[in-house]
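Methods: example folding runs. The two proteins below were folded one after another, and each record is reproduced exactly as written to the output file, sequence line first and structure-token line second.
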Amino acid sequence: MPTIDTDDILEQRRAYNETLAQAADKTRAMWFPMAVMAVLLALPALQFVGNYNYLIHLVLFTASYVVMASGWNVLGGFTGYISLGHNVFFAVGGYFAGMAFARLEISTIILAPVAGLVAGALGYLIGLITLRVRGPSFIISSLALVMIFRILFENWEFVGGAAGVALKANSLPVEWAKLPYYYAFIVMAAFAVWASYRIKHSKFGLGLRAISKDEIKSESAGIDTRFYKVMAFAISAFFVGMAGAVWGEYLTYIRPNIFLIILVSVNMVLMCILGGKGTIAGPVIGAVLIVAFNEFFVATLGASEINILATGLIMMLCLMFFPLGIVGTLARHRKLPRILNWD
């Protein structure tokens, strides 16, 4: 009569339980963002019972930064190259789609993917030059890029120079006027998060993370680091350019002091750092928190330097307790809620 090996049975049961746990984690991770997406898609229905324009604007604004922060995360989070000049692509997308809308009356929502491709192509060319350096030199070169493009746009008469160009507002009633841009940003945000996940879990994403850990060893291992970095730069620029395209029409004007201010780039960086640089959920969490902090302190302290100081203090405290960002630190200590386990 054959003997029963209890150790084998226990090992099989343990493996089975681990498989079930992993499946549950995956189900929860997929379920939560889909539920959030469903709620966001239904949110404008509140307009039937009252005026919720301010709420719709806040969600729209947050979604625009989710697109940009998720895009920036491909370069700054996965690849490890910190850029403070990504608002250049925000401006390029905004001006390309905005001028086409002003001259040809083609909606920027339709042109957003094309504007993203234009920004991505420019990002590829710029990456070929700026990614020859790394570290502080790269950061300085990205800041110089913003200054160069601001001077260019302020002196380019075709795009209105420093005064910019006014864009035609849509003809929808006031309570529904924000809806086309709201849904455009929600869809783009969902796409940016999904694309980030796909990139991170691809062979390309593995190469980017290897570069972030040790670029020299990655090159020695046969990774074409130059190509990988430039492609990450281009993909990152694509998402930021798409967001800029729709943002211009939403504001009904485009001008350099809207797109080419350092605060836009700084927000992208801070959102990723606060949420968790290199994670999928990090840029989303960071965007929600920073927009919420700003709105709360503006409402309570007014639009002054005190508001900026209060937001900075909150950021500092958060990073003291979450040095790898909220998602990164919780994951490191195995305390990350399943609903935020998108990686």
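Second run, written to the same file directly after the first:
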Amino acid sequence: MKTFILDVDTGVDDAFAIMFAARHPEINLIGITCVDGNTNLKQVVINTLKVLDAADGKNIPVSAGATRPLIEEPKYAEHVHGKDGLADLGTPNSKREVDPRNAVELLRDLVESSKDPVTLIPLAPLTNIALFVRTYPETAKKLEKIVLMGGSASGGNATASAEFNIWHDPESAAIVFNSGIPITMYGLDVFNDLKMNQDKANQLLNSGSDCGVFAGKLIDHFIQRLHRDVTLGDYGAVAVALYPNLATVEKYKVVVDTTYGPGRGQTVCDKRPYASLELAGWHKDAPEVEVVLKIEVDEIRNLWMKTIIGN
């Protein structure tokens, strides 16, 4: 059993991750914090509660956090996730109550009260996590590790060089990467590998499982909207946190570009095998990060299907 906290900006791919984490018998999901990202914070909270209903999740505390990035105005991805951030399915609102604590306070309380090591899994811009690290640094150091969905050792999606979650709030990402907490970066190098096609959507829609049908509707909507197979995306970070043996990682020194040029939001990974790094200088105090470069696609996808359908 592993103890996880998720930090989300619940769009469709966050939903895939939340459903899995809430249902898998080897995960003790002790809390979910919400942040502005794919859509506005109010809608993120609404979506997160809806997904927990669909997953038949236990009474997991959900709290609201940052309403915007530290510096810039928010930039949403509703053109991908729908106007409501959750595929515009018209899913009824949940009757679950939101935890009255803000995200930073909930993170503090959950980490301090946990009898077991806690892994924090941010699947969103890192604003909440940066605020937590800055507000309660001693508590943050008690985390076993951070396994985040974000960044890339290759190219970007929000820009040619930057992945959306890091690009949305580069300053927060820089704070988190330099926090001293062990980090595994599950980025665009593997994010798109967990493809789901129409056959998989139909299998879920015909599964007889409420959670499976909900997941199938999300995948079907994505396929119709984007006219291509879609990815389980954020879920992969949860799978890798649960079963690290399903990923191939390399340790690189990583710097988050917080400048205002074309590289803003890029996670610059130094993959050079030779030792003349002193020629560059930027790397001197750069943190060493585990970067996921390959995953066991079939095994991770099958694990998700089995957990969501429930057999």
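Comment on the second run: The chain has a mean pLDDT of 93.
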